[in-house]
Design a protein that fits this description.
The chain is of the alpha+beta class. It contains four helices and ten strands; from the N terminus they run βββαβββββαααββ. It has a three-stranded antiparallel sheet, with no helix packed on it. It has a three-stranded antiparallel sheet with strand order 6-7-8, with no helix packed on it. Strands 2-3 form a two-stranded antiparallel sheet. It is elongated and about 75 Å long.
């Protein structure tokens, strides 16, 4: 969240309400910049993300910036990509940009099912039979040391949810296995 109308005394580690003059002009500028391709490569806020509040007889503007899904990163500002680290944004390195490129790639032919589906929704006997069939056909080595869940990760039945920041794996429709 970005709050306009607050001053920070870094020596004392204190904040004070200073307020914002010309609220309408600033709000207009926020939305103009948000939708200006030379400022941001794509809009990052919606109308309801900007809130005007009154505190101690002063006006403050709160702007909520939601985390971007992995497949839409990075956001660039004035032609540079930034990474949020700790308390500030820093210009992204070449290595970080490479990571974003890889992370933004879609999973081919595989669609995540709702996160409410888990391995418990799968029939353990069917998994065992499937492992046996693909091992016999020589399709892949199913490695008997792998748990069922590890095996299912290895063949793409579970995939990392790259559209969120959760780093969780979810069950897929496994279309790429057919």
């Amino acid at each position: 969240m970005i709050v306009l109308g607050i001053a920070e005394d870094k020596n004392k580690h204190e904040f004070s309400i200073t307020g914002v003059d010309n609220v309408e002009d600033i709000e207009t500028q926020i939305f103009n910049d948000n939708n200006n391709i030379s400022c941001l490569n794509r809009p990052v806020i919606q109308n309801n993300d900007v809130q005007i509040s009154f505190f101690q007889n002063k006006t403050i503007i709160q702007v909520i910036i939601h985390p971007e899904p992995f497949n839409t990163r990075p956001i660039t500002a004035f032609g540079k990509a930034y990474i949020r680290t700790g308390d500030r944004d820093r210009v992204a390195t070449k290595e970080q940009l490479k990571y974003f490129t890889v992370e933004s790639q879609s999973e081919i032919d595989t669609h995540l099912l709702p996160s409410t589906y888990t391995i418990e929704d799968l029939d353990a006997e069917s998994i065992k039979e499937y492992r046996k069939i693909i091992e016999e056909k020589g399709i892949i080595n199913t490695n008997s040391q792998l748990s069922d869940q590890e095996f299912l990760y290895s063949i793409g039945v579970f995939r990392k949810d790259r559209l969120s920041n959760s780093n969780e794996y979810h069950l897929t429709d496994a279309m790429s296995l057919s």
